[in-house]
Design brief:
Elements (H helix, E strand, L loop, with lengths): L2 H21 L14 H4 L5 E7 L6 E10 L5 E8 L2 E11 L4 E8 L4 E8 L5 E9 L5 E10 L4 E10 L2 E12 L1
């Protein structure tokens, strides 16, 4: 055998061996971890709108809520305008220590809200439990629910304590535009 033939044969065997190594099935990779913000991710996209009529004087407040993923995709941000003026600015994020979805927002008066959002097993209801921290140092504890109504609507209810019992203050319907 010539040296040239030996080199060519060796090269051919190396090529076949390398190709067969690449053709081997890859070990199964573990499934991706469930997206921890999946229970509230359906809110992302478009502008959620509603009109709220004040029963005491009949005035209407137009609400627009824009919800989007944060650039790093680890939070869901929201900005809410009342009659075209910024009112709420906040976000949902997963708390890996408590294993909860937390949310934080401020309002145009400087109050801050801190809470948790807990998905219901029904897959369409989110229960929110939160504390409102007022600029005067007072606090308030509030609950709310978001009940999904198809892909482009939800009912939002707010509950406050009265005489030690939770009572619904109001319920409004948001629609995605």
């Amino acid at each position: 055998m010539t040296t040239r033939f030996t080199r060519a044969t060796l090269f051919l065997w190396l090529a076949v061996f390398a190709a067969s190594g690449f053709a081997q099935p890859k070990p199964a990779s573990p499934p991706p971890a469930a997206e921890p913000l999946a229970p509230v991710a359906w809110l992302v996209g478009g502008t959620w709108v509603t009109d709220i009529k004040d029963p005491s004087n009949g005035t209407v407040t137009h609400v627009e809520n824009r919800i989007r993923w944060a650039p790093n995709h680890t939070a869901i941000e929201f900005n809410t305008d009342f009659n075209g003026k910024p009112h709420y600015n906040g976000f949902y994020a997963y708390n890996p220590v408590a294993k909860t979805i937390s949310f934080y927002y401020t309002n145009s008066e400087g109050d801050m809200t801190i809470g948790t959002a807990t998905p219901d097993p029904d897959g369409k209801t989110i229960h929110q439990d939160f504390d409102l921290l007022h600029t005067d140092g007072k606090t308030g504890h509030i609950r709310s629910t978001l009940v999904r109504d198809g892909n482009d609507a939800y009912w939002f209810g707010v509950f406050m304590q009265k005489d030690g019992e939770w009572a619904q203050e109001f319920k409004i319907r948001y629609e995605r535009k």
